[in-house]
Amino acid sequence: MSREFKxxxxxxxxxxxxxxxxxxxxxxxxxxxxxxxLASVPSDAARGFDxxxxxxxxxxxxxxxxxxxxxxxxTLLHAARNVAARDVPLVGINRGRLGFLTDVSxxxxxxxxxxxxxxxxxxxxxxxxxxxxxxxAGTALFALNDIVLQKGDTGRLxxxxxxxxxxxxxxxxxxxxxxxxxxxSTAYALSCGGPIIQPNVDALVMVPICPHTLSDRPLVLPSxxxxxxILDNAGGSDAHVVCxxxxxxxxxxxxxxxxxxxxxxxTLLHPRDYNYYELLRxxxxxxxxxxxxxxxxx
Amino acid sequence: MSREFKxxxxxxxxxxxxxxxxxxxxxxxxxxxxxxxLASVPSDAARGFDxxxxxxxxxxxxxxxxxxxxxxxxTLLHAARNVAARDVPLVGINRGRLGFLTDVSxxxxxxxxxxxxxxxxxxxxxxxxxxxxxxxAGTALFALNDIVLQKGDTGRLxxxxxxxxxxxxxxxxxxxxxxxxxxxSTAYALSCGGPIIQPNVDALVMVPICPHTLSDRPLVLPSxxxxxxILDNAGGSDAHVVCxxxxxxxxxxxxxxxxxxxxxxxTLLHPRDYNYYELLRxxxxxxxxxxxxxxxxx
Amino acid sequence: MSREFKxxxxxxxxxxxxxxxxxxxxxxxxxxxxxxxLASVPSDAARGFDxxxxxxxxxxxxxxxxxxxxxxxxTLLHAARNVAARDVPLVGINRGRLGFLTDVSxxxxxxxxxxxxxxxxxxxxxxxxxxxxxxxAGTALFALNDIVLQKGDTGRLxxxxxxxxxxxxxxxxxxxxxxxxxxxSTAYALSCGGPIIQPNVDALVMVPICPHTLSDRPLVLPSxxxxxxILDNAGGSDAHVVCxxxxxxxxxxxxxxxxxxxxxxxTLLHPRDYNYYELLRxxxxxxxxxxxxxxxxx
Amino acid sequence: MSREFKxxxxxxxxxxxxxxxxxxxxxxxxxxxxxxxLASVPSDAARGFDxxxxxxxxxxxxxxxxxxxxxxxxTLLHAARNVAARDVPLVGINRGRLGFLTDVSxxxxxxxxxxxxxxxxxxxxxxxxxxxxxxxAGTALFALNDIVLQKGDTGRLxxxxxxxxxxxxxxxxxxxxxxxxxxxSTAYALSCGGPIIQPNVDALVMVPICPHTLSDRPLVLPSxxxxxxILDNAGGSDAHVVCxxxxxxxxxxxxxxxxxxxxxxxTLLHPRDYNYYELLRxxxxxxxxxxxxxxxxx
Lengths: 298, 298, 298, 298
Known about the structure:
The structure is a homotetramer.
Chain A: E1 7-11, H1 17-32, E2 36-39, E3 53-54, H2 60-63, E4 66-71, H3 73-83, E5 90-94, H4 109-117, E6 122-126, E7 129-133, E8 141-143, E9 146-151, E10 158-164, E11 167-174, E12 176-180, H5 188-191, E13 196-197, E14 203-209, E15 219-222, E16 227-231, E17 239-243, E18 246-251, E19 256-261, E20 266-270, H6 276-283
Parallel strand pairs in A: 1-2, 1-4, 2-3, 4-5
Antiparallel strand pairs in A: 6-20, 7-8, 7-19, 9-12, 9-17, 10-11, 10-16, 12-14, 14-15, 16-19, 17-18
């Protein structure tokens, strides 16, 4: 991929102390290089970003050639849903701990950005999901990690049915269901017993949340699958649809949630030394501690 | 797929009572239709198969246009490894309970076979694995379900390292490792916490067996992945390599096991009403009993 | 235990069709034997229960010598919380499927009741939990199965800290926490990865729900343990406290939920042929189907 | 517990470099205090232990008032099985990483030992298991962690039946079964999906290894339970009985393994600041890293 980055947007909670400092460093660095910088800055932080053009978050995708998300994975997920339609590539700088998505560390961020601006990067396409309520004129919901059906406040279990490509799969009872991309497989889905799916695998995964039937296990599907989730509850239970951690819709009994691959994907740019497995080892404490790693001790 | 089946082989423990009867019915039926039938029959059962041409198991793939495996999934797995190189398609008739692979029931087998012989079937390509010891002139090992590295009699844990496409993945400690195809995802891998992988997903899964580190979780990889497993044990532990349930090799410390997709795949023929999800529901007791399925009772 | 049962209460949704019929049979049978029968009957079903004394649910424990719960496990759980303070024994008749707690089947219920009335039964003490908000004059919450801390509608994860007997245990992140009795170990806790705890074990179990940290595993504690759960969330997340499936309280950040054994226990009466392991086998589909149970097939 | 420790034994691989040095420091320290020291020293390390009385491992329990195990948990497990019959208390010094059982760190070991010798310690009784083959005059097998039934080299699954207190529990298929004490619950059993059991809980846990039936889950039992495991395999599969990691017996089809609490328990002495939950947090990486611990990032 060969691109020229003339206009770069900063994305994140620029008013937060932990984000403001690296964001200002990035801003100064980019301006020195003659690159236009866009930012959506809260009013009380505006003076710290005098050199940036202040634009509304929703307008960033239309103008920027590159978005730099600074914060945690949640920040990049939010950016991804906003820029996906325009296919603006994303770089993630973590503001503290390494993230699965914000893989550029603050210490090396200026060098990493220079390399990326020089075209020296790994570009990676990450699948996104689109969801919607069937027979409803509602807007589509997008997610880079996962679309989650979850029970409401009442604590009542959900009864729901799943179909894949118009074929009945199963009738489930439990706390809900996650449909995750490979990117999302290391997020909530992992906590619910799902597998880790390497980002190059062309698949989705359907993970039941705390299922009543113990054999109701995670199911990996082709990424082309059309998933339908029908809420069965007769008892008046309500359910929520949560996209990348944000509750965006409600479901009533008999409502049908459809989930499939979004037309748009997200392009993540990484430094050349990006290593997915190293990220896994770091985030999952692999190899390190464990209960005991000396020979013969178990 | 349009094929003509002139020579059909019967595969299975033809001397076992539960297999002999359906096998003889199939034999009579095929002969009536003028089809040549091959069979590898033990001497004490030979008289029951007078109408078949008795050939050695290893020669069946060279001559048959179609192999009918009668028995359990283990029988079909064994047949698959023998016929894969010649790409002879397989049909599986279960001799009692429904199998994941032997999905034709004895009650409908003659009708199902007639349909298949008439070209009225679903043909499905199933990925196979090839494994071998690096730097060894040993023959390659094949598997339709899984290649398993497992600890030996001593009960000592294995320490081993995994690499994918020449990139270091993790250092593991535990009872071993399963590398499974989508077909094998519902076999041993499922007992070890792996996900169910729909057969159309172009992927493999690496499932650690009883890992010491609790975050050492199943990892789904592109089917094109080249996997290397290096046995680290300094303490003299030995390990076994088991292919589709048959122990076929041993590993000593520092030995390297390589696993990747086999060039050959297996073609399974199913009746038109074949339904993968129905198989899952049946084999995993989905939807049925569970602990409790009445509304509001949990 | 030698008791005389002169006044027996019927408990359940007596207006529901599936409950009404067995309830009326039991009523007629008990009246024929000269036993006084109490029932809390909805007005539209009153005519079907002319022979019973209609009392308010809350007054039943004060007068009855025995409570017969008809329905599912949820019905008996509800009865248990109402009668525990008075130590009135309970019998559970399932209205359809076998329950863990409603173990008397409708077909044998009259014989079973006769035996129980004749003093021919197994009496079993089941531990109950008491929970409350620290520093609040609120009433105590009781549960026979479990006290659950769960996230609210927002879908935001909960951060919370646990202490046992005034000793810090862990800082958790996830969907919540279950504290269950042995009785509750086969309910929600089992869906969340908890162990089955035989009812005679003098223990509680603390099961994290979908924990972010994969090594945050179920912890079995002595039944005498005093558990404190402190909600840490700074972000304004709210949490719910659910007792035996009923949401009974809310928690705000910094609130402290205390959980310990209730002073009262529940006495369940079972027919002499009651067999806990048979219940497990039946409810968990043990031994039966499974994926495959024939020799050598896996 | 008030004891006087006049004769103390050193236990461990005293010839190993990592153990020899702390062992010699302890030896010198104890001799300075006028305490007799016993040690089982390999001949090539004898000169480093001139001040100790060299005795055979098996004779240590008869003479020592206290055993100091230096090494990993495996070293202390081995010591426990040797001294349990005489009820000699144990202290565990880890030779590198913290162990669940060897909880005294080398840096503080001399201070910790002084405190313990002065009677300033926490004494803790830990349950042990006794196992044996029914109808065999074989010696009983003991374990502080676990008794494990595991499949042999052939890789064939085991079919076996369990009974508790002469009541049939389940028919299992899989890689085997672990029966663990609370002490062993954080060892192999944890890798197989078992719960953590606090050491004061009066219970055992039965954990199936990679069970074929997904609902075949860990079962916590009263510590008084008499467990019988009957090997069903008709197919000639053999099984091994492994005690605290050492394979000590074989089972043939129809053999019956009995497991129950041993009459003897082990007494562990800990420094006053011993904290079980801190050990768990340290060994299981609780609270620390995890995938991500910053607010709002998941």
